[in-house]
């Protein structure tokens, strides 16, 4: 890992990557410090102040139950990030495991796992998720599991390709001759080489998972009210489209900025980690 | 290898995938907790155990799983996907068939628009790499890629539908007076209704594809044969449009094939927002109503369509790139 200098130099020279890092950092802060930042209780119903336009008391207005939108938005960040991280964690672990097994052993196991990837890629992810959700209660935990278990295919392909190209190299052979077990070779000798692309795809994956969660919650099959999620806040926006524009604008903006942040960070990491693109620009 | 043999080989290669698709669709429906019957039965206080048993037999749920699967596959071959659980009890295939055209139409128009805009956008950004134009388009593309489609739809409805009142915000044609319109009025009416849905379904693909075109183009421009072409004095525009572009566009064929499920998946979103009676909306309503036969039918039909799309993309690639069909490159 002697190329750290090159990594940081490329990363810092990329203003979009820096912007992404700042957004991601700020969001983490907002999510963690939500009780300190939110001016009101996000679930507190106030029937005297329903559907009020943004004002000094309620910066982003109130919803149909008189709840403060800014507070709900702040708490919504927790949901989005939680779903993003856990779903991507599940997807990355599953994909790495299956990709490593396929690439390391090759042959029939590889064929089987890659056919599974092909099959999974034929289903529109949202259809698959909806089909599973139809059987389970749509809760935040089920949503995370289902998004994770339908999003591992890309990682599996990445890791498999890396394993295929590395398993016949001299350093792997050397490890094997010195008596290392398959497990040890895979985890300590080959996997570290595949970490860079996995990290990039995981970062981009967080943005994707947040988008999926918000779409599901918007459709009413994701995070259920009264728990505030940016997606289900937009459902209220749609229901009150003609009378309360602020309900439709801000939660979407929050999703956009968050996903943009993760995508910029991911692309920045990709450019900085790839020796071929590093140094150009 | 000749192209016909290549085609046969690819076709045979899809058989396991086909079996897998049907198997997964089937298992998803049957292994999940709460069997299809329980919803109807649980809400009916007059349901006795004997009635429940009879209903199970009527749906074939008392047979072993593999028999049910084989029966279902046999039906699938004849496009018999069973009957809906909805009170109308109509065949699933009829429900899907009447909704498929509008979904395919919208996706097809979006695909055309995406291709016509994304490719020139990506190429022009790649050619001017590092310029202000490149930076601005890159940022716009990133924003378009991160914006949730349903939010864009909401904003458009808010602005063009509610604020300006220019465009209708639901359905595929007017409800009032549609029958009295002449055919060209009907066409205009349809177009007005489809503007927003088509726009919404294009945004994501537009961003993704132009980004892809740009990086694919940059990748090709970096290769030796481009340097050679320049060195021997080929004019720059010819280097770009004849030598580079052709090679850069090859992978797009595969990308288009792979993006098919995503596009159809997106239908769920814009169809349920704009109240368009397509398969996406059917999927959504069958999830809400727990109409499992419709759900399963939808899942398998869409996956098979995707499989077909991928096969076509494969063939397109083989026609466009002789290296593929001669087997110079390996499968994966």
Describe the fold and architecture.
- The complex is a heterodimer of chains A (281) and B (332).
- Chain A contains twelve helices and no strands.
- Chain A is an all-alpha fold.
- Chain A has one domain (2-280): Orthogonal Bundle (MetI-like fold).
- The longest helix of chain A is centred in the N-terminal third of the chain and has 37 residues, at 69-105.
- The two termini of chain A are 23 Å apart.
- Chain B is mainly α and 332 residues long.
- Chain B has one domain: MetI-like (MetI-like fold), CATH 1.10.3720.10.
- Chain B is 77% helix and 0% strand.
- In chain B, helix 5 (92-127) runs parallel beside helix 12 and helix 9 crosses helix 10.
- The longest helix of chain B has 39 residues, at 183-221.
- Chains A and B meet through helix 5, helix 6, helix 10, helix 11 and helix 12 of A and helix 1, helix 6, helix 7, helix 10 and helix 11 of B.
Task: Give a brief outline of the structure.
Helices cover 72% and strands 0% of the residues of chain A.
């Amino acid at each position: 890992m002697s190329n750290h200098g090159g990594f940081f130099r490329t990363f810092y020279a990329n203003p979009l990557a820096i912007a992404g890092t700042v957004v991601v950092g700020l969001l983490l802060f907002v999510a963690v410090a939500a009780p300190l930042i939110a001016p009101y209780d996000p679930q507190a119903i106030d029937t005297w102040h329903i559907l009020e336009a943004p004002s000094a008391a309620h910066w982003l207005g109130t919803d149909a139950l008189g709840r403060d939108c800014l507070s709900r938005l702040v708490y919504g960040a927790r949901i989005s990030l939680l779903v993003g991280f856990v779903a991507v964690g599940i997807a990355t672990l599953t994909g790495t495991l299956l990709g490593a097994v396929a690439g390391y052993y090759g042959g029939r196991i590889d064929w089987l796992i890659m056919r599974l990837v092909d099959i999974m890629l034929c289903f529109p992810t949202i259809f698959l998720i909806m089909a599973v959700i139809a059987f389970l209660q749509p809760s935040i935990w089920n949503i995370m599991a289902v998004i994770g278990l339908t999003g591992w295919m890309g990682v599996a392909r990445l890791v498999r390709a890396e394993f295929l190209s590395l398993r016949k190299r001299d350093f792997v052979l050397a490890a094997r001759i010195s008596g290392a077990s398959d497990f040890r070779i895979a985890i300590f000798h080959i996997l570290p080489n595949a970490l860079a692309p996995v990290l990039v795809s995981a970062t981009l994956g967080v943005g994707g998972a947040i988008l999926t969660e918000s779409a599901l919650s918007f459709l009413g099959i994701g995070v259920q009210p009264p728990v505030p999620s940016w997606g289900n806040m937009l459902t209220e926006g749609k229901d009150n489209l003609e009378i309360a524009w602020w309900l439709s604008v801000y939660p979407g903006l929050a999703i956009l900025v968050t996903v943009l942040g993760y995508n910029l960070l991911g692309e920045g990491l990709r450019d900085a980690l790839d020796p071929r693109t590093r140094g150009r620009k | 290898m000749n192209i016909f043999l290549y085609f046969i080989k690819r076709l045979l290669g899809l058989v396991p995938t086909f079996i897998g698709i049907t198997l997964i669709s089937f298992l998803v429906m049957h292994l999940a907790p709460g069997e299809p019957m329980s919803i109807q039965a649980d809400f009916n206080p007059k349901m006795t155990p004997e009635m429940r048993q009879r209903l199970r037999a009527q749906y074939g749920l008392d047979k072993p799983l593999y028999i049910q699967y084989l029966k279902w596959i046999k039906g699938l071959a004849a496009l018999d996907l069973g009957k809906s659980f909805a009170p109308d009890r109509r065949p699933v295939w009829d429900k899907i068939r009447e909704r498929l055209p509008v979904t395919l139409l919208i996706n097809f128009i979006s695909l055309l628009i995406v291709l016509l805009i994304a490719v020139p956008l990506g190429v022009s950004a790649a050619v001017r790499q590092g310029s202000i134009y490149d930076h601005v388009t890159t940022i716009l593309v990133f924003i378009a890629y991160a914006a949730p489609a349903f939010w864009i739809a909401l904003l458009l409805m808010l602005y063009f539908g509610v604020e300006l009142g220019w465009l209708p915000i639901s359905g595929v044609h007017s409800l009032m007076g549609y029958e009295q319109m002449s055919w060209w009025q009907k066409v205009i009416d349809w177009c007005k209704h489809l503007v927003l849905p088509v726009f919404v379904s294009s945004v994501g693909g537009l961003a993704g594809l132009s980004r892809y075109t740009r990086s694919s183009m940059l990748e090709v421009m970096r290769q030796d044969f481009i340097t050679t072409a320049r060195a021997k004095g080929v004019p720059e525009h010819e280097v770009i449009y004849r030598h580079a572009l052709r090679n850069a566009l090859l992978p797009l064929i595969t990308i288009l094939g792979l993006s098919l499920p995503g596009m159809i998946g997106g239908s769920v979103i814009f169809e349920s927002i704009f109240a368009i009676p397509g398969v996406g909306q059917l999927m959504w309503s069958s999830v809400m109503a727990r109409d499992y036969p419709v759900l399963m039918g939808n899942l398998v039909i869409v996956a098979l369509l995707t499989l077909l799309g991928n096969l076509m993309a494969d063939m397109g690639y083989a026609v466009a790139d002789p290296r593929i069909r001669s087997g110079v490159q390996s499968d994966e």
